[in-house]
């Protein structure tokens, strides 16, 4: 039996939420199904959002667990796959189910999940879909990544005896303030978890302030440190390098609205010092590429677009890499990467992907999602922080002028990523212990 925790009974707010979600589930499904359909997801797979499985539950040896992971989108799912790989090494007889909510994460899972692991779209957080999902899959443990606190799902899984963990726990300050206004409900939901592993001490204290049991809250580092390196298409890299030739290249990756103007201004400055310099500009969301293209035109820079099959020529000053799934390939072009989502208060993006690719990192100050990562990475010499276009241009120029300094920074970034990844074995061991996933599949408090 699963432990009941100290969160008390479900609150009136929880019961109201459960009733409302049951009523609106058919309407919510129409919306999410239409979005999935627009992205090429089949009708059968769309119905997974209603809890209708599209695959059978795997047949397991009597003592082997089915371990369910959930991550909202690509980043969380990649972190989940990191742990799946670690746990598979320790429990080779276990089977793994990964759920997520987006078509892009589903496509990624198809290529990155280990053999035998299954991906399904997550059920809507409503009684009917959740019941059908749990009836079919009957997971022994559920591991939620980062910030997905679905009350109906967590309550129903806990009630059935599924031991639950929240890993890489991350809630924005805004979310924390919102939950603090609903303290009793927050305490009830967090008490469904047997273990809560936060990204850092600050987040651990936030969880405790919301009513989480201090004995169940521990810092667990950032799972993204142990993710496999991004895939690289060697043939594409060779073709791009042929197009670029001997020109110097720098990369601005995962950029958001309001950041490209700063990056393009820095690039214009750099062109005075390096007239043949090429910028590979990679928007976080390729659907913004038309707007980004217009910004490049406004900056009076010449460019080519990846999505249109346009090649880099000697006259190309900016290569707009507006496609999905090729980030690792682009990182292979240059060891000098500015990582977006950081010049504005967005929270930053995963620096481990850059470091694993052998590159050094330039970041803005807005990295609240990685407060446990960027300060020590900067202290180690693997990253530098900039505030504006002049500072960004200066940082790029410094590393282009001093290849030895750039190589030292790349080595520092890679070493930092490797040291962080080694800590994940301890996370896997802790999950096995707290979720009762040991060799005999027994629960400590059974």
From TrEMBL:
GO biological process, one term: lipopolysaccharide core region biosynthetic process
Short name of any one Pfam family annotated for the protein: Glycos_transf_N
Any single Gene Ontology cellular-component annotation: plasma membrane
E.C. numbers: 2.4.99.12
Any GO molecular function: Kdo transferase activity
SUPFAM superfamilies listed in its UniProt record: UDP-Glycosyltransferase/glycogen phosphorylase
Catalytic residue list: 76
Pathway given in the UniProt record: Bacterial outer membrane biogenesis; LPS core biosynthesis
Keyword Membrane: yes
Keywords: Cell membrane, Lipopolysaccharide biosynthesis, Membrane, Transferase
Top enzyme class: transferase
Compartments reported by the entry: Cell membrane
Site (Transition state stabilizer) location in chain: 146, 224
Catalyzed reaction equations: lipid IVA (E. coli) + CMP-3-deoxy-beta-D-manno-octulosonate = alpha-Kdo-(2->6)-lipid IVA (E. coli) + CMP + H(+)
Domain 3-deoxy-D-manno-octulosonic-acid transferase N-terminal as annotated: residue spans: 45-225
Known function: Involved in lipopolysaccharide (LPS) biosynthesis. Catalyzes the transfer of 3-deoxy-D-manno-octulosonate (Kdo) residue(s) from CMP-Kdo to lipid IV(A), the tetraacyldisaccharide-1,4'-bisphosphate precursor of lipid A.
Family: Belongs to the glycosyltransferase group 1 family. Glycosyltransferase 30 subfamily.
Protein name (record): 3-deoxy-D-manno-octulosonic acid transferase
Source lineage: Bacteria, Pseudomonadati, Pseudomonadota, Alphaproteobacteria, Rhodobacterales
């Amino acid at each position: 039996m699963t432990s009941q925790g100290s969160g008390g009974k479900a609150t009136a707010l929880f019961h109201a939420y459960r009733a409302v979600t049951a009523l609106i589930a058919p309407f919510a499904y129409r919306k999410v199904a239409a979005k999935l359909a627009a992205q090429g997801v089949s009708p059968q797979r769309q119905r997974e959002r209603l809890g209708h499985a599209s695959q059978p539950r795997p047949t397991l040896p009597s003592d082997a667990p089915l371990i369910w992971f959930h991550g909202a989108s690509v980043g969380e799912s990649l972190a989940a796959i990191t742990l799946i790989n670690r746990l598979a090494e320790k429990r080779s007889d276990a089977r793994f189910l990964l759920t997520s909510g987006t078509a892009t994460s589903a496509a990624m899972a198809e290529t990155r999940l280990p053999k035998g692991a299954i991906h399904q779209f997550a059920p809507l957080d409503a009684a009917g879909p959740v019941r059908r999902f749990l009836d079919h899959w009957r997971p022994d443990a559920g591991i939620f990544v980062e910030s997905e606190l679905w009350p109906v799902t967590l309550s129903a899984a806990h009630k059935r005896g599924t031991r639950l963990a929240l890993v890489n726990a991350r809630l924005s300050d805004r979310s924390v303030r919102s939950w603090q206004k609903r303290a009793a409900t927050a305490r009830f939901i967090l008490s469904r978890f047997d273990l809560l592993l936060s990204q850092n001490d600050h987040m651990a204290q936030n969880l405790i302030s919301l009513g989480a049991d201090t004995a169940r809250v521990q810092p667990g580092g950032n799972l993204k440190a142990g993710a496999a390196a991004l895939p690289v298409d060697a043939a594409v890299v060779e073709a791009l390098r042929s197009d670029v030739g001997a020109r110097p290249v720098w990369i601005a990756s995962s950029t958001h609205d309001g950041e490209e103007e700063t990056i393009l201004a820095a690039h214009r400055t750099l062109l005075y010092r390096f007239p043949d310099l090429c910028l590979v500009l990679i928007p976080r969301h390729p659907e913004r590429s038309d707007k980004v293209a217009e910004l490049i035109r406004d900056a009076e820079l010449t460019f080519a677009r990846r999505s249109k099959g346009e090649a880099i020529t000697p006259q190309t000053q900016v290569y707009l890499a507006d496609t999905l799934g090729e980030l690792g390939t682009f990182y292979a072009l240059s060891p000098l990467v500015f990582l977006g989502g950081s010049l504005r208060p967005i929270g930053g993006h995963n620096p481990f992907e850059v470091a694993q690719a052998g590159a050094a990192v330039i970041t803005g100050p807005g990295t609240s999602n990685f407060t446990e990562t960027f300060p020590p990475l900067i202290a180690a010499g693997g990253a530098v922080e900039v505030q504006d276009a002049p500072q960004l241009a200066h940082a790029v120029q410094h590393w282009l002028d001093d290849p030895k300094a750039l190589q030292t920074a790349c080595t520092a970034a890679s070493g930092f990523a490797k040291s962080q990844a080694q800590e994940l074995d301890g996370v896997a061991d802790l999950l096995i212990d707290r979720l009762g996933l040991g060799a005999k599949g027994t629960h400590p408090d059974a």
